[in-house]
Specification:
The protein has 490 residues and is of the alpha+beta class. An eleven-stranded mixed beta sheet has the order 3-7-8-14-11-10-9-22-23-21-20, sandwiched between helices.
Length: 490
């Protein structure tokens, strides 16, 4: 082994996350989540416990995106967890799409069983479905609330949990129970519904790119990949570091499919009774999984500042007993940053300094500040940006750091996005032939491939999908629907 190879091996062994992305990407993903203390598996198979740090990220996602959709005139509401089976059965295509994932409640109490323990009792007259999505029950309410064109448009959203019985669970990416928001809008015309569906997918694009720093392919799903019952499904597709795609959010133009099954009708200005045109749109805690797979490295999580629970962590570094003067100096910096609206934490715990440093790295804190006696005496501090690590370490005046913090965080946000976009583009290939498409996947390349849309009608395309477990991700808007992105996906 050469000296260079030995150095590379030693460097690789020092990463905080084992295995690395290159060694075992799926296991690396799980270990990043564990190291960041974000979530863990629940006692119920397929479910997860979201720990405070992971939930803090979800709270920021909620807060920011909730503000964005309210700017579009959307109001929040809440609908029941349990849906009568008869409601879902009204829309055959819809229920067929979710039938294998539905969890069903058949009894309403427990009673003592022979030999001890408990057993279900009190069988329900009608089974209840734990919501996999809420089109049917919201449609039932819309049918009562919408009577005239004056009641339209109606735009509602709910933040809630849903249940889809997942066979191959993975924290955040695919769990049987997950958190999400689901928007449901109703309109008087087909044109308004189409405009809304596209407007909402654009809202998802803006949120994901501007706040999560995740670059996207935005487009329309093929007919085979549409949401059950939809006229059109629009999607944002992100590409992970291993080359697989992830559907980050969708917006559906449902036409009159659900309004007819739920009888959502209204009297128009001309006195005629018409069915409403509806849309639905949703994103989930899967976004946190995307954050990990797009940005994290072999030392842990890397969070864009706009979505980081703590944008700055301050570590006072003293030897021996606690230095009250040093703590006071750190507290002033903390207070000054808070006045500027920065999410900042002073870690004055008794944990060892190296452990506290590694915690900030593993949790992806954008900026770590280190202040020792010498820095305090000089009115300075050392800060380390997570995206650059020790290569970006700087010693600066404390007041100057406070003055510059917004620009520091803005640079990190842009840097993380640019790095992710470079990776994304590196995972995209283009071909005009199915023969070459087959060769690409036979070679095992971790890529997504753009092909002419017409090729998806060929028998060979279906054979390629089956042989390599690839799917049509979307027809990108940027390609005017003339091409389809094809590849493996989560």
């Amino acid at each position: 082994m050469s000296q260079q190879q030995a150095q590379q091996k030693n460097k690789k062994a020092k990463t905080a996350i084992t295995p690395t992305r290159e060694d075992d990407f799926p296991e690396w993903y799980q270990q990043v989540i564990k190291a960041a203390d974000m979530a863990e598996n629940a006692p119920v198979r397929g479910c997860m416990i979201i720990k405070p740090y992971g939930y803090a990220i979800w709270e920021l996602i909620q807060k920011i995106f909730d503000g964005m959709i309210k700017d579009h005139g959307v109001e929040n509401a809440y609908f029941p967890l349990l849906i009568p089976l008869s409601y879902i059965s009204k829309e055959a295509e819809h229920v067929d799409g979710f039938a294998k994932e539905c969890a069903v409640v058949t009894h309403h109490r427990l009673e003592e069983a022979e030999g001890g323990g408990l057993k279900p009792a009190g069988k329900l007259a009608e089974p209840l479905i734990i919501r996999p999505t809420s089109e049917t029950i919201i449609g039932e309410s819309f049918a009562k609330w919408i009577n005239s064109y004056r009641d339209l448009p109606m735009k509602l959203n709910q933040w809630c949990n849903v249940m889809r019985w997942e066979m191959r669970p993975r924290l955040f990416l695919r769990t049987s129970e997950f958190l999400w928001q689901e928007g449901h809008n109703a309109f008087a015309t087909a044109e308004e519904a189409e405009e809304d569906a596209r407007k909402m997918v654009e809202a998802y694009r803006k949120f994901n790119e501007d706040y999560l720093a995740i670059p996207l392919i935005v487009g329309e799903k093929t007919a085979e990949e549409r949401f059950p019952g939809a006229v059109a499904t629009y999607t944002i597709e992100a590409i992970m570091q291993d080359g697989k795609a992830l559907q980050a959010a969708t917006s559906h133009n449902l036409g009159q499919t659900f309004s007819k099954s739920a009888d959502i009708s209204f009297q128009d200005q001309d006195g005629q009774n018409k069915y409403a045109w509806t849309t639905s749109w949703g994103s989930t805690t899967r976004l946190i999984g995307a954050l990990v797979m797009v940005h994290a490295d072999d030392d842990g999580l890397v969070l864009p500042p706009k979505i980081a629970p703590q944008q700055v962590v301050i570590l006072p570094i003293s030897r021996g007993e606690e230095n009250a003067e040093l703590i006071a100096f750190c507290q002033k910096i903390e207070a000054d940053l808070r006045k500027k609206g920065i999410r900042v934490k002073l870690d004055n715990s008794d944990a060892k300094t190296p452990d506290k440093m590694w915690k900030t790295i593993k949790q992806g804190v954008p900026v770590r500040v280190e202040i020792g006696q010498r820095e305090m005496d000089e009115g300075k501090l050392t800060f380390v940006p997570r995206d650059l690590g020790r290569d970006g370490k700087q010693l600066v005046d404390a007041d100057q750091f406070v003055d510059d913090i917004e620009s520091i965080l803005d640079r990190i946000q842009q840097s993380i996005f640019d790095r992710a976009k470079t990776r994304m583009l590196g995972h995209i290939k283009t071909t005009e032939s199915l023969a070459e498409l087959r060769q690409i996947f036979e070679a095992g390349e971790a890529v997504q491939v753009l092909i002419p849309t017409d090729l998806t009608k060929e028998p060979e395309y279906e054979a390629i999908q089956n042989d390599f477990s690839v799917t049509s991700r979307c027809m990108p808007f940027a390609e005017n629907g003339e091409k389809v992105l094809v590849g493996k996906a989560y």
